[in-house]
Amino acid sequence: MNRDIIYTCDVNNTKNNFSRTLYLYDKKIVISSTKQDQTTNDAVQEQRGRSIDLSSFSTTISWIFNKTIIQGFQVSYYCRFSSAQKSLTYRGKAEDMKQLKKLLDCKVLYTDFNNDYLFVSSLHSKEDSEIQKYVQKATSQEKLVKKVNLKMNQQVSFQQLFKSKLEKEVNILFELKQQKHKSILEIEEIYKESNEIIFIMKYCEGGTLYNYILNRKYQIEQSEIKCIMKRLLKGVKHLHKLGIIHRDLKLDNIVLEKENDIKSVKIIDFGFAVEFGYQNIMRCGTPGYMAPEILNQQDYNELVDIYSLGSVFHALSSGQKLYPEYRDKNHLVFLNKLNKYKISSKIIDTEQRQLLLLMIGHRKHRPSASFCLKHQFFRQRSEIPHPIETQLKLLNFPTLKNPFRNQTGKY
């Protein structure tokens, strides 16, 4: 059992000031007075109030700060033996508490969000969620915050609503925190408050890929397209290797961590993500990016993500949508269901066009992310412009008159 211990430190129970030893495992915390007590089975430990299940959505931790220094924590959890929610408070050495928090990030839900963060501005809002910018008090670092509102009513309890809407997303994000990839923006912390779930991420200065294309006036160089698509495909390959389907890949769900740096592209927003075997015929995603089999409520697999990346690929390559002639949303859904796309005439590179057609083709012939990465399109070498070069191209320098030239054009 000791081989499974991730971390151990001494803590004091603030209620009786007794010294205890905290043992951190992958999915639980055991707080014991002796080593022998620590090896007692889970049932006895929980009955004593010393074994806490970190994977339970009833478990939350609130950190106790003195300015920017962590002094301890308060843990709230559901005890099966007393059938009640319990709360315990412990304090420890600042170095131990700092390390403990680092290890617990995205292993357990936190609470008291407003005590830890300062609001800066709102960036984007939807019906049930909002993207905002905050500053973390302890570090003064800017953070990207996604708040998911849980509309309460008398018929549905918080636990039922939370489990139905967010349990899968939280579990997937916990896993991605452990299995990191440079093309996926990892969640740093998750907070559970009375009527919302809050996801904390690193603030991305470059904004969304959609804004990047817009700022570049839809003129993206071939070398940039290859770099972006290669990184996105590697990120999707990683997701599929872990048995995760994103199901909502689009320009707005891809960000640049650094301004004008295409090498820093990251996949975000796992609100529609699901593990292999748990997908159903429910429609989810964004019309224009969705694989036709989802809209037609047919069985599907992870290759729906390849179709979505195909739509992103088309936008990068041409500055146009895959379904540019739709009249309204219903018409867009109709065209998307039939896969009546229109490839832009701006895409003239043979290899580029061939790969695109494979990605947005019929599901039976659609390639995997691994296959796409081996395509001839990515084997053609081309230089990637430096971010400063990219910024210079966006500047409109005025045309200056030559003072040594007369009106006839002669010097």
From TrEMBL:
Pfam families: Pkinase (PF00069). One of its GO terms (molecular function) is ATP binding. GO terms for cellular component: cytoplasm; nucleus. SMART domains: S_TKc (SM00220). Residues 117-378 form the Protein kinase domain. InterPro entries: Kinase-like_dom_sf, Prot_kinase_dom, Ser/Thr_kinase_AS. One of its GO terms (biological process) is mitotic DNA damage checkpoint signaling. PANTHER family: OVARIAN-SPECIFIC SERINE/THREONINE-PROTEIN KINASE LOK-RELATED, PROTEIN KINASE DOMAIN-CONTAINING PROTEIN. This is Protein kinase domain-containing protein.
